[in-house]
């Protein structure tokens, strides 16, 4: 199941707060408790969340324009 942009952002914010506080164990927005072995592991998790957020928030076209021509 894919997470919404709001859920991804909340997960990233929670992980950033935990990392800044020096905490390696934290409960994510879904209630799951995660324990990271190192700061570099947390950094990789943040990078993965940032990549998912970027992919999810890319602008999608709302309108499609078709061009047609009448052949002779």
TrEMBL record:
**UniProt-recorded name of the protein:** GpW protein
Q: Which domain of life is it from?
A: Bacteria
What's the source species for this entry? Primorskyibacter flagellatus
């Amino acid at each position: 199941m894919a997470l919404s942009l709001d859920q991804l952002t909340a997960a990233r914010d929670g992980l950033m707060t935990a990392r800044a506080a020096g905490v390696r164990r934290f409960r994510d927005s879904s209630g799951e408790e995660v324990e990271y072995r190192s700061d570099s592991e947390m950094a990789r998790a943040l990078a993965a969340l940032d990549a998912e957020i970027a992919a999810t928030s890319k602008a999608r076209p709302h309108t499609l324009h078709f061009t047609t021509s009448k052949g002779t």
